[in-house]
Amino acid sequence: MVHSARTMRRDELLDLNDVLQHPGRRIEVDISTEMDEEEDLDLVTPLDGFLEAVSTGNLLLISGEFSTTAVLECARCTEPLELPISFQLDEQFPVVGVPSSLNHQDVAKVSPDEPFELFEGNSLIVENLLRQNLLLEIPIQPLCTYGWDGDCPIAIARGLQKTKNEAARAEFQKLAGLLKDEPSEKSEAGEETE
Questions:
Q1: Burial of 9 (0-12, 13-18, 19+ CB in 10 A)
Q2: If residue 18 lies in a helix (H) or strand (E), which one and from where to where?
Q3: Which range, of 11-25, 31-45, 107-121, 172-186, averages the lowest pLDDT?
Q4: pLDDT tens digits for 24-46?
Q5: Which residues pair with 9 in a beta bridge?
């Protein structure tokens, strides 16, 4: 039998013990958080979405969808940008022990093998899981509407405009120059070059 509950939550911990002790039972939870603990994230809108959790007996399956709008800095002109960010969750965590619904002398426990803490006992630390997935969705080099090639008036005003043949970073320009100055392999071996 599949049971489900749908509620709005902002709590840091989501108790999944009932799901773990009753394989096949499902919990569905709506979540809205502003991720206040994150100094590196500037969210314009709360991170909203839902989580679903179900246990197969051997695995705890957690899925969901979330979206927000964040303020990021343009990698080219450094102006603030508001970018929509959305992501889907599809996580699996091993479960050890026998669910108490099948054996009253034992209990099932989630046994995550993550390098950082996602669970306290059988309770999910919701914001840790959401933070991990949100950070993976943030672009490495967010860009304003002008991108790298457009004539960005802010980049021009700050002297950050590059010419067509200029490398994006000075180190790469120097490396490109080294490649041009290398003699060919044939001339090093004493053969004539064309």
A1: middle
A2: helix 17-21
A3: 172-186
A4: 999 999 999 988 777 778 899 99
A5: 31
Residues found in the chain: 194
Instruction: Report residue 65's pLDDT band, with 50, 70 and 90 as the boundaries.
Output: very high
> Quick one: DSSP state of residue 136?
H
Cβ(70)–Cβ(41) under 8 Å? Answer: yes
Angstrom distance (rounded) from CA 32 to CA 38: 15
Q: DSSP assignment of 143-190, as one string?
A: --TTTTTS--HHHHHTT-PPPTTS-SSHHHHHHHHHHHHSPPHHHHTT
128-179 pLDDT, tens digit per residue, is 999 999 999 999 899 988 888 888 888 888 776 654 444 456 666 677 667 6
Beta bridge partners, 53, equal: 27, 62
d(CA 24, CA 36): 34
Select from 125, 109, 15, 18 the least CA-distant residue to 59. 109
